[in-house]
Amino acid sequence: MTQPDASRATTREPTAVDAVAESWVDTQVDLYPEFRVYLGRPGREGEYADYSPEGAERAIAETRRALAEIRAAVAVDDVDAVTKTDLDRELQLAIDKHEAGFDQRDLNVIASPAQELRDIFDLMPTETVDDWSHVATRLGNLPEAMSGYIESLRSGIAAGNVPAIRQVTEVVAQAKKQLADTGFFYGLARTADGGGADLPASLRAELEDGARASAEAYGALVEFLATELAPHAPEKDAVGRDLYALASRGFLGATIDQDETYEWGIEELARMTAEQEAIAREIKPGASVLEAIAFLDGDPARKLHGTDALQRWMQETSDRAVEELSRTQFDIPDEVKRLECMIAPTQEGGIYYTNPTDDFSRPGQMWWSVPEGVTEFDTWRELTTVYHEGVPGHHLQIGQAVYNKATLNTWRRNAGTSGHAEGWALYAERLMEQLGYLDDPADRLGMLDGQRLRAARVVLDIGVHLEKPLPDGSGTWTGEYAFGFLGANVNMSREFVRFEVNRYLGWPGQAPSYKVGQRIWEQLRDETAAREGSSFDIRAFHKRALDIGGVGLDTLRAALSTRARG
To answer: Residue 393 and residue 386: Cα distance in Å, rounded?
Structure first.
């Protein structure tokens, strides 16, 4: 599956394989109108998907149809071969997960419909009267979407397929925040009052009614979770080997040996710890990691106060990296050079990136969801995060795929896995160290703090969900043990540790995909270097790999190795 250099390609004539892929994107935005917001496609702006069991059955029927079509389509070139392989992988996985009942237990603290029904508003434009009209329509439609979601979770009760009680309890606490007049929905309606658009009174009233209805819908979710789902929710956080293998395949786009990966994670965590300890002694002779961190945390020159200062620093750091790297290391198109650094309207914790629209009318955006009460930020901890989310991390990777319209169809430009994206972003952090952007030992310590966290997550996530023996042999992994384990391997607040562990326990397979993805990216680079010998050019390797787009890691490996054989 050789992948040609997309930047030098002329507009490619669409093929039968492209037609199936484009049709699948059209089907997805029909089934999930929210995708239109992510893609920047007009139409159905205020609608939600059908989150009910009937909606899930319709979606899987379309998935089976698309799978039959892509298997019947004939690849005419190497671009087609990659598309065909990876779309087949994604569609088959969706069927496997549906048959395993993932829809019935889709509840966690960060990436389930309980959050997504609200999160979509973050990306909706609010500049014109029409924009606010779409917001009002979506607010009005949220209760029906929530009702369908509750029905899906209710079907899980009947099937004996229920998420762990810890996730139920945590989501109840999250959802309760939306019920008061200080919650997101009422705040959104008030934002319209202070916005630049001159809204008619009828629309303002519609927004207020929609905010009230949406808050009440979250109240219905709280009631259902607390009174119906909780009594059936198991105490055990582990999902077991079968469900975990499916989840891991989805996040990596690759099948790995979970037991070998667990042992590798233990070794990688030890290596990260030793590297951190050595750098701590560079920062302050004889210091432990904790002593070096205390020393850095006491340095006012490395501290930011307030989210406004954080946002400005993020933007300035990102702009500087884009400008310098585009001159020296990467060929970055003008459209991709624009990246907006944003403070998210939520306070749930987490930092994330959202894609540019297909025409770049909405640029790529880096979002920081700052937990309530957090007002100080240490630049030495966060510098590598900006590179991870921006350039050369997610933004370069995803923006380049969006830019490559000449070769990549719409599905290829917007597909991808966590292992591909997050693995690349961790790979990019190490690349920035190699390029000299982390020469300050404090910044390297911050990078290693993140890398150590990601290594610890491999051990924790596989350990808990597969109920593996503890690294010291003293017993078996449990959710409760995980909190102390992570706390011992990160230098973060108790609130951060609590949120992170709850995330891992409810979103199996996702957290390890970062470090495992980095491992696979590094393997691919080293394998390519060994094949090409003295002719190996790492800049050319990066470009060739990114021009393939956000495919699963098994597909990426096949594409790069086929090109080498060709």
So the answer is: 8
DSSP state, residue 229: I
- The CB-side HSE value for 49 (13 A sphere, CA atoms) comes to 25
Supply the pLDDT for residue 193.
Answer: 65
Sheet holding 339-343, edge to edge: 339-343, 364-368, 351-354
Cα–Cα distance for residue pair 444/380, rounded to 1 Å: 8
Q: Do the beta carbons of residue 111 and residue 83 sit within 8 Å? A: no
| Closest-CA residue to 527 (of 482, 501, 563, 495) | 563
Q: 509 near 244, Cβ under 8 Å?
A: yes
Pairing of strands 364-368, 351-354: antiparallel
The beta strands (E) that lie in 246-314 are given as: 303-305
Tokens matching residue 259:
């037991």
Are the beta carbons of 266 and 457 closer than 8 angstroms?
no
For the chain, the straight-line distance linking the first and the last C-alpha, in angstroms and rounded, comes to 9
Handedness of CA 159, 165, 171, 175 (dihedral sign): positive
How far, in Å, CA of 562 to CA of 1, rounded? 5
For the chain, give the number of residues: 566
| 3 state DSSP class of 219 | helix
Q: Are 366 and 319 in contact (CB under 8 A)?
A: no
Q: For residues 421 and 521, is the Cβ–Cβ distance under 8 A?
A: no
Which parts of 231-292 are beta strand (E)?
none
Considering only the C-alpha atoms of the chain, give the largest distance between any 2 of them, rounded to a whole number of Å: 70
Full-model pTM: 0.87
Question: One-letter amino acid identity for 65?
Answer: R
Token digits of residue 2: 């050789």
- Distance CA(16)–CA(1), nearest Å, equals 17
How would DSSP label each residue in 327-350?
HHT----HHHH-EEEEE-S--S--
Please give the backbone phi and psi of residue 303, each rounded to the nearest 5 degrees, phi first: -120, 140
Per-residue three-class SS string for 533-559:
HHHCCHHHHHHHHHHCCCCCHHHHHHH
Return the bridge partners of 368, or none.
343, 351
- Taking only Cα atoms into account, the Rg of the chain, rounded to an integer number of angstroms, comes to 23
The Cα 358–Cα 363 span in angstroms is 9
Task: Give the phi and the psi of residue 366 in degrees, each rounded to 5.
Answer: -105, 120
Q: Cα dihedral sign for 561, 518, 417, 541?
A: negative
Residues of the chain with pLDDT under 50: 2-9, 566
The continuous run of DSSP H or E covering 354 comes out as strand 351-354
Write down the pLDDT at residue 538. Answer: 85
Dist CA 362 CA 354 (whole Å): 10
Residue 526, pLDDT score:
94
Q: Are 371 and 496 in contact (CB under 8 A)?
A: yes
246 membership: H or E segment, kind and range: helix 241-252
pLDDT reported for residue 6: 40
Please check whether residue 2 is in contact with residue 85, taking contact to mean a CB–CB distance below 8 angstroms: no
Burial classification of residue 553, based on how many CB atoms lie within 10 Å of its CB (0-12 exposed, 13-18 middle, 19 or more buried): buried
Residue found by looking up tokens 């829809």 in the block = 103
